[in-house]
Write a structure and sequence with these properties.
With 169 residues, this protein is an alpha+beta fold. It has helices spanning 2-20, 45-55, 117-124, and strands at residues 31-33, 36-38, 59-64, 71-76, 80-85, 94-100, 129-131, 134-138, 147-153, 158-165. Strand 5 and strand 6 form a beta hairpin.
Length: 169
Amino acid sequence: MKKRLLMLMVCLFLLPRALAAAPIEKEDMIFLFDGKAYTVGEEANPLLSALEARYGKGIETQTESCLFTGMDKEFDFGEVLIGTYPIGRAGGDVLESIIVLEGELKTSRGIGIGASLEEVETAYGSDYVLDYNQITFCGGDPLTEPVLVFFLDLKANAVSGFFLMGNVN
């Protein structure tokens, strides 16, 4: 009886972790903002407009694109930085990176700044690349598929920022 009870307790302890740590899917590579999902590789204007509505006009910097005709841009909204490149319709801006540096924003699986490494692993699993203070998840080939990266504050062992980035294919 004690052995069965112990096995049941172990299963109950491990079950939430096993269920929560589903493999990374393409659907995980989204940025949720005010109830709407945004993905790298799509037109940037809808997200830029939503961010501007909440934070006001962001600080825009731009530089000549080394890969495309037009300007690569970065939009700084304080809590969030957006990187774009000019490959949309008629040279429009396309989302290249979404970087969260502070605030209450979270990933599609509920991980935000201040989350512990254990919470990241519970939400996303342990199939990641750890490079010093960066945890990188990819749902496919990192050279062609978006990646989700968490920055860790190594002293606190907690998320200090995160970003989604898409590579140009």
